[in-house]
Write a structure and sequence with these properties.
Radius of gyration of chain B: 13 Å
Order of helices and strands of chain A: EEEEEEEEEEEE
Strand content of chain B: over 45%
Number of helices of chain B: 0
Number of helices of chain A: 0
Distance between the termini of chain B: 33 Å
Structural class of chain B: mainly beta
Shape of chain A: globular
Helix content of chain A: under 10%
Distance between the termini of chain A: 38 Å
Helix content of chain B: under 10%
Largest sheet of chain B: 7 strands, mixed
Oligomer: heterodimer
Chain lengths: 115, 116
Amino acid sequence: AQKITQTQPGMFVQEKEAVTLDCTYDTSDPSYGLFWYKQPSSGEMIFLIYQGSYDQQNATEGRYSLNFQKARKSANLVISASQLGDSAMYFCAMREIANAGKSTFGDGTTLTVKP
Amino acid sequence: DTAVSQTPKYLVTQMGNDKSIKCEQNLGHDTMYWYKQDSKKFLKIMFSYNNKELIINETVPNRFSPKSPDKAHLNLHINSLELGDSAVYFCASSQGEGRRPGNTIYFGEGSWLTVV
């Protein structure tokens, strides 16, 4: 089974609207971390937000928030007030202590923000 | 100041050649990684070093050999390049090898390798 699943290969959103990018994960490790990265067309990988498995509250970083539902094993990224510069590929990733801290990445979601 | 820098950014080379990609991080991290991103954008870890010791070695051909002269540097040497090696190779670093899952991995800008 895939450890990280991003079911939306591509998403469109109107500028200034909010968008949710889905991510589900599979692990039996009680201690893990979930990350989201942004990869614009220029190619670099930019860290956006982190959620720990023991964190009680959902993580937020500016316009980014992580909707963490532990029982459902989902860690969706919410981008509020989308901007044209948000058009990029977004990767969800998980790090498990039991797996030597190895990070596993999802296949990514391409987000296009329309003016 | 670039936190994780890798060179070269672009590399076009012929099949059969040997090439190296260098990586340096100035974040003071003790763990460094090499990732490969293929043409479909799938991102896979190749190697991980913690304090110059190899801790993750995924199933990659032994033509790929990482070398870590110190904990701030992790180079990737590729022998006898093949067409399928064409990809973007990312160097990355983090503090801690994963005992704390919240240690963020920071990526370099990528090295775009094209084998012709």
